[in-house]
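Friendly challenge for the regulars: who can give me the structure tokens for this chain first? No prize, just bragging rights.
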Amino acid sequence: MKGLILLCIEQSRVNSEVRWEDLYHEGKAYPPIYGVLNLGAVVGIVEFEPNADGLFSLPAALQAMN
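First reply, four minutes later:
Bragging rights claimed.
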């Protein structure tokens, strides 16, 4: 799959409800957005292309944030 992008979102700008949840009980919480994502919350866009083997890795621009 090609042509994917990652949206960088500023949570404080999201108008819809954001809930941090550990859906799989793995000790890692993720923030689903319950409603429409307003464009004003998007602060960046990062291309997300697969590696040569077809798998995906976190882009270098985002690794420092992880």
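The first strand starts at residue 4 and ends at 9. The beta strands are 4-9, 17-18, 33-34, 42-48. Your move, everyone else.
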